[in-house]
Amino acid sequence: MEYETNNWIWDGMYNHPHVFGGLMLTAALLGLSTSYFGGITVPQLPYLWPDSGIFHKKKCEKKRIRVYMDGCFDLMHYGHANALRQAKALGDELVVGVVSDEEIIANKGPPVLSMEERLALVSGLKWVDEVIPKAPYEITEQFMSRLFNEHKIDYIIHGDDPCLLPDGTDAYALAKKAGRYKQIKRTEGVSSTDIVGRILSSLRDTNGGEDQNNTSLHKTPESQPKSAHLSQFLPTSRRIVQFSNGKGPGPNARVVYIDGAFDLFHAGHVEILKNARQLGDFLLVGIHNDETVSEHRGHHPIMHLHERSLSVLGCRYVDEVIIGAPWEVTMDMVTTFNISLVVHGTVSEYNSLFTGESDPYSVPKSMGIFKLLESPKNITTTSVSQRIIANHDAYMKRNAKKAESEKKYYAQKTYVSGD
Q1: Residue 20 in domain
Q2: Which segments carry the region annotation Disordered (predicted)?
């Protein structure tokens, strides 16, 4: 009965805290007893300050900051991943806009990857919370209103390199004018333009990359002319730590192992890694070094070892990587990493010239811990490269145009703190 009688007081305290707080403070200053209120039991003032539900409720309802970043994300690489990692650090939730094929064609030239493939790559990144497909290349008044009102975006993010429309104006001018724009540091040493350039410079024709003497023309990035690169990727331990989950498997975790080159990280890689992760509690990925890839596939990878390692580490389904994993899965590896299952996809870049060599999975097969996974997508590094080779003229034109803005950026480049 006493609870029912005093219920109006508790309702009032929650709904009108300032009134009741002022009343109680006045009572305390005047030295009045709580009995003055007609025998109603009212908690003492000091009790309310640290534990009151009023203050606890306000603390729990702190607004989460939502940030937005867009891009073409064509030929997804670790530079894209690092940009989105930096963007996520500026808020609590990251929403990513993937520019439509039509907008890319109008502003930059033909994309290499389809919208579906680019969405799979972006959605597969560990820092991405939501994805908006077919986003516009330019932040228009209408789209900005949609971001702020429909998607509850607080800030729009972009790198410190300029993003210009065909008429030379800034694509993010409106966001800057609205005071809702934040800038991150560009990741040096790679770009989609650079990757296309590597492919074009390493293959002379569309017939598998061989000259008249049947000699492989694939080259490592380091072997290409210096003029082909305006910036070089310099791997650091800090960058690897930034991409890593920083956690090992639990004592009873089911560790799944998958290995490969993972060159030109694509949608097929994301899907096979997703399927592999579903078979256990911890996904360990072995990434072969450049020499191993060259030895067993007949040509060097387009991306070198550290570039490929960061691309794989950025995938949300990956827990840890072995940088420079051996070709064969040995008993020592299984024991050292407590591997419960070794898997391999049905679609791979295996060169038919090397079919006579020993099976790299003979040990896990003999232990009964090997599983062949059906690859969800029939995409390979070679098939992606061939798209570029097949449209050689279009991509040469696109790269020549982009190269000019790249040169201008590096000519004016200054140090930007924070990454």
Answers
A1: no
A2: 203-230
Domain count, the chain: 2
Q: Are residues 361 and 244 in the same domain?
A: yes
H helix runs in 41-133, sequence order: 45-51, 53-60, 78-89, 101-107, 115-123
368 and 257 in a common domain: yes
- Amino acid identity at 72: C
Alpha-carbon gap, residue 299 to 296, rounded angstroms? 8
Question: Which of these three, 351, 373, 395, is where a domain ends?
Answer: 373
More confident residue, 278 or 13: 278
106 belongs to a structural domain:
yes
pLDDT for residue 82 = 94
Q: Phi and psi for 215 in degrees, rounded to 5?
A: -100, 135
Higher pLDDT, 318 or 410: 318
| Residue numbers of the domain that contains 310 | 237-373
Co-location of 250 and 354 in the same domain:
yes
Give per-residue pLDDT as tens, 55-99. 454 556 688 999 999 999 999 999 999 999 999 999 999 999 999
Of residues 168 and 141, more confidence is placed in: 141
Measured between alpha carbons, how far is 300 from 385 in angstroms, rounded to an integer? 13
CATH of the domain at 90: 3.40.50.620
pLDDT of residue 406: 60
Residue 256 lies in a domain: yes
Going by C-beta distance under 8 Å and a sequence separation of 6 or more, which residues neighbour residue 44? 34
| Sign of the four-CA dihedral 191, 195, 200, 202 | positive
Between 132 and 358, the more confident residue is 132
Strand order in the sheet with 370-373: 320-323, 282-287, 255-260, 339-345, 370-373
Half-sphere exposure of 294 (CA within 13 A, CB side): 14
Residues 184, 250 within the same domain: no
Tell me how far apart the alpha carbons of residues 78 and 187 are, in angstroms, rounded to a whole number. Answer: 8
CA distance linking residue 267 with residue 124, whole number of Å: 9
